[in-house]
Structure formats: structure tokens, C-alpha cells
Amino acid sequence: MDRTRVKDGIARARTAVAEGDGPAALAILRATIGADTDFLDQLRAARLLGGVDGAALGLRPLRLAIAGASTLDHLVPPLQLWLTLAGFAPTIHLAPFDTTTASVIDPGSELHAFRPDLVWLFTTHRDHDLSLRPGAAPDAVRAAVARAVAARVALWDALRAQGCLVMENNAPLPEDDPAGNLAGAAAWGARTALRLLNAELALAAPSGVVLFDLDQVAARHGRHAWHDARYWHHSKHAVAPGASGVLAHAASRLIAGARGLARKCLVLDLDNTLWGGVIGDDGLAGIALGSNAAGEAFVAFQAHVKALKDRGIILAACSKNEPDAASLPFREHPDTVLRLEDFAVFRAGWGNKADAVRDIAATLGIGLDSLVFVDDNPMERDIVRRHLPEVAVPEMPDDPAHYIAALEAGAWFEAIAFNAEDATRTRLYAENAQRAEHRAAFVDMDGYLASLEMVATTGGADAFHLPRIAQLIGKSNQFHLTGTRPTEAEIDALARDPAWTVLHIRLRDRFGDNGLIAALLLRQQGQDLAIHTWVMSCRVLARGVEEFTANLILRDSQRRGATRILGRFVPSAKNQLVAGLYPRLGFTPAGEEAGARLFTAPADRHPWPTMVHHDA
Hints:
Layout: H1 3-18, H2 22-32, H3 39-49, E1 60-68, H4 76-85, E2 88-94, H5 100-105, H6 110-114, E3 118-122, H7 138-160, E4 165-169, H8 182-185, H9 190-204, E5 209-212, H10 214-221, H11 223-226, H12 229-235, H13 244-258, E6 265-268, H14 279-286, H15 293-310, E7 314-320, H16 323-332, E8 345-349, H17 353-364, E9 371-374, H18 378-387, H19 403-409, H20 420-423, H21 425-439, H22 445-452, E10 455-459, H23 466-475, H24 488-495, E11 500-509, E12 512-525, E13 528-536, H25 545-559, E14 564-569, H26 581-584, E15 588-593, E16 596-602, E17 613-614
Parallel strand pairs: 1-2, 1-3, 3-4, 4-5, 6-7, 6-9, 7-8, 10-17, 13-14
Antiparallel strand pairs: 10-11, 11-12, 12-13, 14-16, 15-16
Helix pairs in contact: 1-2, 1-3, 3-4, 4-13, 7-9, 14-16
């Protein structure tokens, strides 16, 4: 990365901080700092953000504890930098050196007193006892790996019992080994055993445990540059200081995915981004797509984008083109990987791209900070950066062969799990766009809602829906009344507690199945039923689902013999969408408590009218 550009960005961010403009400082640093930025420049940026009040900017609080048997102090500043840029207001606790087991199993330890949201067990290959003599039998290798995995699982279970989300590294392979090639070719080799260990850790990790692929991060950076023996022997630094920024960036992106702040949508230019040339000028036969080296590079990039879509990333097209010309390659080119149906929104026209990107976000019902915008044209990238600083805009190289690497460098789309609904996400959003078009044919809202023929099914936290409930709560920001983020293990425990009710809602209509669209955590408190957590997908906003959900709450309060329903609204930078929800539903304001606005409704009131039918 250009150091002159980085230094200029840091200087401009420093000015913004001095002027009290924290959002501008964050936007500048997001646009100028990268994982490969010099470590000292990352430290300067981290110190600069130390003067920014994250809570005042609406950043999400995060309490992160780190425990390991190596020196990690140098990791904290860049980690604070990258977590802040990802949208967190982090507080980091570093457990004393080499006290991981004691810190985890002792309920009176500093780690537990810190009450972390997430615990990062920072391990390397040195933390696993896999000592094997040359020529050891395969069974001995498997037994040693099984013992090492069992030791990690025991720590995971202890932390999960406390409601902590756990993140643990897999083992980065060491660069050197006296066995040479046999280290990775023989059954008894150290690299063979570590590879098996990494595979078994992935298989053993339960929900609530995030495995951080540190081996891949080290390999991508370069193993020779990842570890410096001088620092290990001198001060037990397992990661060279120069690689710490890369490590912090990768970890922060994974944490963002774990806590619901990963990006959701990839917005793509077309000409010279998904194919070479200009379709309106060159025609279908004249664009580069699959027929030569450049054409193959564009096919590879399309295949990468398609793979992102298949794992749940929403795709949108944003092109300065005539609509028919822009769509032609997706309809008729024999080498295209992407098709029109892969895009949830397709925008082609001659307007300002910043306006088009804003329209795409509005159509999808997601925030601008959920978008990544890819365009080969530096002028278009600059326009979007200037007018929409919340949107991530990676720098794209001149050679399309490097497009994949440029997009991957940002690690914008990290996730900790995958389920069947992720694979259909683009379809869900595309169907929602069809609903919006359908809405335009009606002059009254009731007629439109009735025409949707909405049917909801409800249920609890069964084995199938539990991870989906946790995922929805974790990633919801706009329709999230309290900002609570219970882990999957915590939700499972609440579902087993008779004082609590855990509910999910699925919705289908004439256009298709919306999937799981809402979740509730309700708690009985004497004669009151308190709404602890209420989240809903913005895809179904203003379609009567809010009233349907309120009726579920009303029914549960009556089942429990409660006399009153208690609602809380905790304002954040992202949930102003629902600031007026309780008043709109007829709840009565009941003051404030610890920054939360309180509302009440009688449990014997009449149900709310809704066009959503219940398939009980």
C-alpha cells in the first residue's frame, strides 16, 4: 500500500479527530488503512483512534479477553484499531502470560471477572503436545491428536458454560522441521500430525466455538515473514511484530462475522469488472470473457463472485449502461458464469453511481454499511467513497487476474457458520424486490397486504432453528430493540428455563418462502412478561409482521397469567427504524432505566389486527 497515501490519510484523520469529527476520522482510515499497511503506521492510527469515543459514535461495545502462552501485548493496539474500524467499541483484557488453563477453569480468575463477550484462546503449534518418535504408528498419531483435541474441547466447554463465545486458532505449521520432507509426507511427521489436528479441531468445534484459520493467514502472509525466531527466543513473540497488523485485521474480520457486523452485499460494476470491454460499444462477440488470458481472468472472477453468492452474499449490479445491453452477456454469452437470476437487484442507467448504490441499499432494505462496491474505474470508486463513506470500496488493480486477491484482501464477508437459508439469500431479496414492484400496483396498503397471502409458522429453539435464531439475533441491527447478543449456548439455556419463552417466526407468501424472519426472547418477571429481545428481518418490515409478533407476545403473557407486558427500547446508531414501534403498537411510555426507554401494555388488551395468517 502506498505509504504516502497512508500518511496523508492518517494526517487527515488526525485533523478530523481534533475537530471532533469522529465519523469522518473513521471513514478516512477505512479508506486508507489496509491489512498490509506498515505495522508502525497501524500503531499510529490506533493511537489516533484512542481519542475517539466509540460509544458516542454508536459503535457496538465488545468485551474481548485473550489468553495464550506467547507474548501478545503488541497485538492489542492494531486489534483495537481494526475492531473499531469494523464497528466495535472494544475493551480488551489480556490474561497473564501462559495462564490459559488456570484462567479458564478458575471462576475467580481475572478473565471471568472481566465478563467477556468473547474469549480468544490464542494457540500455536507449540501449545499442542504431539511429540511423536520417528516411525510412530498411525494409531499413535491419531491417539496423540485425539488427546490434544480433547484438551481443547474441555476448555471450550468450560467457557461455553459461562455463556462466552469462544474463538481459538488452529495450528499454523512451522516453517522448519528437522525431518525435512518427511515432516509432511510421513504418517508420524510433525506437519502431518498438525494437519490432522487442524482437521479434527474443525470437526470437533461445536456451535459457540469459532475456529480461526490462523494457518491460512500465516501461509498467505508468508511463513518466513510470519515468525521471527529472534523475537521468540528473546520475548516469546509467536508472531513477528511486522505480521501483527495482518493478524489483527484477519481476527477482527472474523469477530465482525461472529457478532453480526460482516458485510452482506457485493455491488458490482459490469464493463471491465465482470468482463473486459464495454458491452454497449464492443457487442457480445467483442467483450473479453473466456476466450483469452484476460477473458479467463474475468471468468475466474465471476466464478469467485458466484461462490460468494452461493454461501449467502447478496449480489447487486450497478452499471452505466442501457439495461438491455447490460443484461445481454448474462443472458446470451456462452462463457458467463453469472446469470441475471444471481442478482437480487440489477441497476443499469446513466445516473450517478452513488445514487444508484444508495437505491440498491434501500431496495434491499439493508444499511449502506452492509455493502461492498467493486468497480474498475477509480473515478467511480472515489465518488462512492466521498458520498457514501459507510460503503466499503476496495482498490482494484489494473490486471483482472488480480481482482480476486483484491476483493479477498478486505475479508469483508467472513462468517462463522453456514445454513441452507444462506444459500437462498439472493433469491429471498430478489423476491422482496418483486414484492415492491407488486406494491406499486395498489393504491391502498390493506389491498396490497391481503394480496400477498402471508402465512406465518412459529416454533421454539429446536435443534434446527436454534443456530438460525442465534444468527438472526447476532446480525440484526436495524430492527433490534435492545441490542442484546446472547450466544447460541445462552439461548439454548434460556429455552430450557420455564421462566423464558424462545420463539421464531417463518413467513411465506405468494412470491415465495421468506425463511426465518423474526425471533423473540421473553421472560416472566412476577406478574409481568418482559420482552428481552425482539429482532426481525427488514425484508418484511411494514407488512403486519410486527402486529403478528405482538400478538404472539400477548398470547404468551395470557398463557402465563401475566397482567402486563414490558417493552424496552435501547437506542443505537442503527436501530432508529424501530424507535417508534412500541408507541405505534399502543404501548404506554413508562420512563427510562439505564439508557433504555420503557413501555407497557396490559395483557388483557385486544389482539392487534394483521394480514398475516398463523399456520399453527
